[in-house]
Amino acid sequence: MLAYLARRLAASLLILLGISVVTFGLTFMIPADPVAMIAGRNSTAEVRAQIRHQLGLDRPLPAQYASYLGRLVQGDLGRSYARKSDVGPLIVSRLPPTLLLMLGAIVAELLIGLPAGIYAASRRGRTGDKVAMTLSFVSVSTPQFVLGLTLIYLFAYLLNWFPLGGYGSLSHLILPALTLGLAGGGWYSRMMRSSMIEVLRNDYIRTARAKGMPEWRVILGHGLRNAIVPIVAMVGLDVGIFMSGVVVVENVYGWPGIGQLMWQAIQSLDIPIIMGVTTVAACFIVLGNLVADLAAPLIDPRIRLR
Amino acid sequence: MSAEALLSVEGLTVGFNTEEGPVRVVEDVSFSVVAGETLGLVGESGCGKSVTAQTIMRLLPSPPARIDGGRIRFEGEDLVVLPEPRMRKVRGDRIGMVFQEPMTSLNPTQRIGRQIAEVLALHRGMNYTQAKESVIDALRKVGIGNAERRLDQYPHELSGGLRQRVMIAMAIVCRPKLLIADEPTTALDVTIQAQIMELLKALQRELGLAILLITHDLGMVAEMCRSLAVMYAGRIVETGPAATVFARPRHPYTAGLLSSSPRQARRGERLPSIPGLVPPPGKRSTGCSFADRCGRVTDRCRRELPPLASFGAGAAACWNPVP
Question: Largest Cα–Cα distance in chain A?
Answer without folding.
Answer: 86
